[in-house]
Amino acid sequence: ADPMSLSRIGCGSMGGMLALPQGKGPHHVGCTDVMVGHTRQGLFLRLFYPCLLQAGATEPLWIPRSEYCAGLADFTLRRRWCSALLSITIGFCRVPVSWNGPFKPRSGGYPLIIFSHGLGAFRTLYSSVCTELASWGFVVAALEHRDHSAAITYFCTAEAGREEWIPFQRVPQGQKEFYFRNKQVHQRAEECVRALRLFKDIASGKSVLNILHQDWDLSVLKDNIDLAKVAVMGHSFGGVTAVLALVKEPSFRCAVALDAWMFPLENLLYPEVPKPVLFINTEKFQTPESVAKMKRLSSRNSQTKIITILGTVHESQTDFAFLPGKLISRVFGTKGTLDPNKGLAITSQAALAFLQRHLNLEEEFDQWDDLLEGVGDSVVPEAPFCRSNL
Question: Which of the chain's termini has less CB crowding within 10 Å, N or C?
Fold first, then answer.
């Protein structure tokens, strides 16, 4: 492609070519970044929450800084030179939420979801599903993991203004992938547990310093999160992270696993998963081994559900589904045939129905209960190749 056509791609409507959908629920959605602690043992997350409408609110960038373009280029293409291309095409895209918007209080508080990203991703690449869930009345904390599985991430040292970057790391040569990934999944699940502890600290009135924004005070969350109603959710590596987090933390009442990559979980742990899991799979990603692991969990717990969305690929459950253009499909692989808005609706409605059931919510999300049985347009029960043997 000549440079001209690239610059045209980048300057579509609304300062970018990514058209992320607004939440369909009754609440406006606000968003802020939270970093706690000055070491890699701290936490970094993007918070999506119901907010009050405010005139002149700004929208946050989808790719928060240029370093993330470089990390993404490195991970997906193993080519740094593409980062300039990515900056041109997606560097200006924004998420349709109010940056640092005023939190909308709710007596009794909102249920909480801790969200875990996939391999080579980071906290902002699931903005569409996080925004959607927040619009239906959830506080969603999208973590950025520091186990070297994010495309890139960083923490701020105690020395003023100094950042330490944590790059993506491939499996070291000569090391078995299972052992490398298993160590990571345990670290990721621990980070999910620490994130929940952070919200417990805030709820108990402890003063928690967000080293990124002093202008958005975390204490507004104090009486506005219902810590009896907490779920964990994630995509791919994040999906299996969510399953493991159920083992590590009894306060998580259920998990939603989007196209979970089950490989890194050791077999010993399967009997230990005490709570229900909703597995929402895409049509093209799963292997028989991975599905067999999901079925081990569903055979132990009748509330665990497995469904597949037809016409979808692994990336369909990320924001990349909403990127138009041949360039992006060349960069990030094939696109699914299902309209991404339809895919997002099925994913979030199934998740909402499941969350209502297991967090005891008094909403009307049970209108989507059929999806949990794999009944509906573009949905089937179980996994695609389980169906072929029926």
Answer: C
pLDDT per residue as tens digits for the range 215-267: 889 999 999 999 999 999 999 999 999 999 999 999 999 999 999 999 999 98
Residue bearing tokens 């701020």? 156
Burial of 329 (0-12, 13-18, 19+ CB in 10 A): middle
Of 117, 314, 316, 348, catalytic = 314
DSSP string, 17-86: S--PPPP-SSSEEEEEEEEESSSTTSEEEEEEEEE---TT----BSS-SHHHHHHHHHHHHS-TTHHHHH
Active site residue 314: yes
**pTM of the predicted model, to two decimals?**
0.93
Whether residue 235 lies in the annotated active site: no
What is residue 258's three-state secondary structure?
A: strand
Q: Catalytic: which of 259, 290, 316, 358?
A: 259
Where along the chain do its domains lie?
A: 29-60+95-381
The single residue of 83, 87, 128, 236 carrying the catalytic annotation is 236
Query: Is 316 among the residues known to form the active site?
Result: no
Does domain 29-60+95-381 sit in CATH 3.40.50.1820? yes
